[in-house]
Amino acid sequence: MTSQTALSGSAADRPGLRRRLAAAGWDRITLLVLPAAAFVVLLFIYPFAYGLVLSFEPAVGGMFANYAKFFSDPYLYDTIGTTMWLGLPATLVNMALALPIAFQVRHFRWERILTTILVIPITLGTVLVAEGLLTYLGPQGWLNRTLIELGIIGSPVRLIHNYWGVFLSLVITGFPFVFLLTLSYVTGIDPALPQAAATLGAGPAARFRHIFLPLLIPGLAVAFCLAFVQAYSVFPSAVLLGAPAGPTRVISIAAYQAAFEQYDHSMASAIAMIMAAVQLVVVVAVLGARTLFYRGPMGSGKG
Question: 77-102: buried (b, 16+ CB within 10 Å) or exposed (e) per residue?
Fold first, then answer.
């Protein structure tokens, strides 16, 4: 009788399942994350894992046959450098343009109107932007016709179906994204910090170097990584505005041809994995290099 009473008492003292989950951090609010986690697993993690496994199942050869074929064929592995030569300069140009413009726009009266206008290229998408550039930059486009009428050039300048057409497309579609991110970082810095530095005699260059730049480095690194990943995955612009069989044959085109022209989905998966690995290397290098410039907090709010 006494042992039964002791057991019932210990069971009554034991917290319920809900309390044990709450103590472990799994309360009702936390459980709301589960649908989002399931969404990420189904649409991102599972396809990536499936593609990774498929890349090691070539139609002919051993487990690493697809990767050996890619790096032994210059027509394939040269696409890494071609894509890097497009994505990296376009990202650097967008970063170089976005930072000074963001510093000027933060005090602009019509900031919201300007940012709304800059969102338009993002909403249009790369295909419509490429179609517009074909009209404006073509041999009979508005730009060439205007330059010829003004006597600046004698014959049309070739700006499409080559490197420059794809490059301009990446700049136009990528700049709004980089600018909006940079503007949010710039406006998030407490204005009292540069004002305090100015009262101590620091000039504009010194305030930028010692106040703004250290606080902006973490955010600019993230913006660079996101913009680079977006530019490195270029496909429509390289086909519509470039020369997909020549100087703008990017790695995404090689993956497309392997999947839908050669029907070798295993090889296409291997190319996609190589593409992801190159992007990961650049992202890790940039995020690691930011610690060389600043090791403090990730940002400074206005409050």
Answer: bebbebbbebbeebbebbbeebbebb
Cα 184 to Cα 181: distance, rounded to the nearest angstrom: 5
Q: Using the structure block, give the residue that is written with the tokens 């305090």.
A: 196
Widest CA span of the chain, in angstroms? Answer: 109
Q: Give the model confidence (pLDDT) of 198-216 as tens digits.
A: 888 888 888 888 888 888 9
- Stretches in the chain below the pLDDT threshold 70: 1-18, 21-27, 293-303
Q: Which amino acid is at 137?
A: L
DSSP per position, 248-270: T--HHHHHHHHHHTS--HHHHHH
